[in-house]
Amino acid sequence: MLKPRDIKVGSVIYIDPKKFSNDIAMVNVVTGGRPALYEFRPGPFVCVSRSGSFCSFMALTTTPTSSRGDRFKIEPHWLRGTPQWEGQESYLNDVTQTYVGDLLGFLAAQVATVHRQSSGYTERPLVTPEGVEAIREEQRIRIRRAA
User: Fold this and answer.
1) pTM of the full predicted structure?
2) Which pLDDT band, with edges at 50, 70 and 90, does 20 fall under?
3) Sign (positive/negative) of CA torsion 77, 41, 31, 70?
4) What pLDDT, in 10s, does the model give residues 45-102?
5) Which of 50, 68, 89, 106 is deepest in the core (most CB within 10 A)?
């Protein structure tokens, strides 16, 4: 399992949100509200900020649309890691929803350390700094639009 030293901005870890402790909250970056953690399938989450032991993660998905419309696409050149990870389309589940809290709470909820690995390939998946900045910019756009 991953340790705190393994997590940096852009790191992707597989998390089961049902395992989150009370140290983790979901925050809507547009409204500032803190909705209850909803039922969510285990899957990949990308670290979008970290300051000491406090960090924030966003859920990723391979589905391009939701009931609310199109999702923010993680461009292929922003993905690093296993060939399978780099070869699939990825999107933010919801650019307005960020999970925040203590890093140890996220690590306690991890269910895998690498993308469904094939033939022993163990490089950890990540989103490049350029990709993380694009995510943050999309959040800023949504915040300005809502103001």
Assistant:
1) 0.86
2) confident
3) positive
4) 999 999 999 999 999 998 998 877 789 999 999 998 867 677 788 999 888 888 899 9
5) 106
All residues at 6 or more sequence positions from 118 whose CB lies less than 8 Å from its CB, including other chains: 82, 83, 84
Tokens at 95, concatenated = 């650019």
Q: How far is CA 20 from CA 3, 46, 125, 144, in A?
A: 16, 16, 21, 30
The contacts of residue 28 (CB under 8 Å, 6+ apart) are 34, 35, 96, 97
Amino acid at 7: I
Angle (CA) 6 49 94, round 5°: 110
Rounded Cα distance, 65 and 48, in Å: 21
The span from the CA of 61 to the CA of 92, in Å, is 6
